[in-house]
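Per-record layout

source: Streptomyces lavendulae subsp. lavendulae
name: Prokaryotic metallothionein
length: 80
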Amino acid sequence: MRRMARCEVCGNDYGMSFEVHAQGAVHVFDCFSCAIHRMAPICEHCRVQIIGQGVEVQGQWFCGAHCARAEGKVGITDRV
């Protein structure tokens, strides 16, 4: 029988919880939405959680080139 693990975001004890190993830490979640809530970076300009690719500029995260440019970052373009 599989041991249940408690989600670190919502506290749910769930038999199908999963672990995410990142930067030397282990996180336990019961669903992807809790994992996103805890782990997704937040855009420095519009404050949305970045679920897609995002843009990292000088250690700051942005949801896209538009937000990076709005914060004065230059030379940033979205790729299509």
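summary: The longest strand covers residues 18-22. Strands lie at 5-6, 13-14, 18-22, 25-29, 55-57, 60-62.
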